[in-house]
């Protein structure tokens, strides 16, 4: 999967994508306590959630970032949020090639390299066979994204500052990448962030490491506001007790991303005969993609529906192979909704119930239409 501009079995994980204005107010409260508490690391105190502010152009561009304090004394770094990749990495003063930050904003390693013989090193490689000339060698990494961007570096371990919703603070040592060779591709300029926050299902993600240390429940979510910004949270304190649909994750997926299904495609609430879809959820990608069969089903139904209205195909822009124009320009998304019927995914195994922490991996979406165009 890809990060917006920078371009991976799972623990029992809850991945939460919530429409910010539909569920939560503009601030979070610690009042929603976990229903099924489990024994945690004594450092975790009586809370299991940490919240980070999300910044950026959430709407309409779909770009958003979160900042974490790393090192001791702590230093703040901003990251692209990516649930479609596993490894977290930050631009590294090693020296650094392809870095976008000035030297004083780069991470400086300090005799804190992860060794090649550690299990965590094996977790970041596709092959389980580690190429170690000696067990004490450094753990190198290379990650490539769908947009052909990449980062090359070495794995390090340092303190991150985790502030719980009850105000207590812990500083566990977490492994992440120190990237000293970054590449970008495409017409877009290089991203302004210091790195990528990988929240995938693999053992190397921040979430998995914090859970393995007993510091949080294995839950990650982000809530985004149409006004811009929002929150990213680790842990289960902030999950609403109602107004959500639970969807099982596919246990058969060999990748480290989050995948749900089977789902069928609905147009204007009606079955399109497209079913058994496996859907991948990737916070690093702004667009929703359909396979050829599902795509053609949508195009056919939209085209037939628009024949009843005064629309005609617009062919003046070759970059938009399928486009319509009306008798007057659209002024807002609300205008579009008046003419185009909703498109939705119906998850056949979704469970409408009160919130409960179940022993499988689940995805939570807001009640109602999941995807609306």
Major beta-sheet overview: 14 strands, mixed
Order of strands across the main sheet: 6-7-10-5-11-4-3-2-13-12-1-22-14-21
Helicity range: 10-25%
Order of helices and strands: EHEEEEHEEEEEEHEEEEEEHEEHEEE
What's the gyration radius in Å?
A: 22 Å
Query: What do the pLDDT scores average to?
Result: 76
What general outline do the C-alpha atoms trace? globular
Count the DSSP helices.
Answer: 5
Give the distance, in angstroms, between the N- and C-terminal Cα atoms.
22 Å
Number of strands: 22
Approximate strand percentage: 25-35%
Structural class: mainly beta
Quaternary class = single chain
* Low-confidence spans: 1-40, 352-373
Domain Peptidase A1: 64-373
InterPro entries: Aspartic_peptidase_A1, PEPTIDASE_A1, Peptidase_aspartic_dom_sf, TAXi_C, TAXi_N
Protein name: Peptidase A1 domain-containing protein
Keywords: Signal
What can you tell me about this protein's structure?
The protein is 10% helix and 30% strand. It is mainly beta and 373 residues long. A hairpin with a 5-residue loop joins β6 (140-144) and β7 (150-159). The longest helix is centred in the last third of the chain and has 15 residues, at 292-306. The chain is globular.
């Amino acid at each position: 999967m890809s990060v917006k501009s920078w371009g991976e079995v799972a623990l029992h994980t809850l991945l939460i994508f919530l429409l910010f204005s539909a569920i939560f107010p503009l601030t979070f409260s610690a009042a929603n306590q976990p229903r099924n508490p489990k024994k945690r690391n004594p450092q975790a105190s009586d809370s299991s959630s940490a919240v980070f502010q999300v910044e950026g152009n959430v709407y309409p561009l779909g770009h958003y970032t979160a900042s974490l304090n790393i090192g001791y004394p702590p230093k703040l770094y901003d990251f692209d949020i990516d649930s479609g990749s596993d490894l977290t990495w930050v631009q590294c003063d090693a020296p650094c090639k392809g870095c976008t930050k000035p030297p004083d904003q780069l991470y400086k390693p300090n005799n804190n390299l992860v060794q090649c013989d550690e299990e965590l090193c094996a977790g970041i490689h596709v092959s389980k066979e580690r190429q170690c000339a000696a067990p004490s060698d450094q753990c190198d990494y290379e990650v490539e994204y769908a947009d052909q961007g990449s980062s090359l570096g070495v794995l390090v371990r340092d303190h991150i500052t985790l502030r719980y919703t009850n105000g207590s603070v812990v500083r566990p040592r977490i492994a992440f990448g120190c990237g000293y060779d970054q590449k970008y591709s495409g017409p877009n300029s290089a991203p302004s962030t210091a790195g990528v926050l990988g929240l995938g299902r693999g053992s190397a993600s921040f979430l998995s490491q914090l859970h393995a240390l007993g510091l949080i429940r294995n839950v990650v979510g982000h809530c985004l506001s149409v006004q811009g910004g929002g929150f990213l949270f680790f842990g289960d304190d902030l999950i609403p007790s109602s107004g959500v649909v639970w969807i099982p994750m596919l246990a058969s997926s060999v990748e480290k991303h989050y995948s749900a299904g089977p789902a069928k495609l609905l147009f204007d609430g009606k079955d399109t005969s497209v079913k058994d879809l496996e859907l991948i959820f990737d916070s690093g990608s702004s667009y929703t993609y359909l396979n050829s069969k599902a795509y053609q089903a949508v195009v056919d139904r939209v085209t037939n529906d628009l024949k009843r209205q005064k629309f005609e195909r617009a062919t003046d822009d070759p970059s938009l192979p399928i486009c319509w124009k009306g008798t007057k320009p659209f002024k807002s998304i609300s205008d579009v909704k008046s003419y185009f019927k909703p498109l939705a995914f119906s998850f056949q195994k979704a469970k409408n119930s009160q919130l409960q922490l179940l022993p499988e991996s689940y995805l939570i979406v807001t009640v109602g239409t999941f995807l609306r165009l």
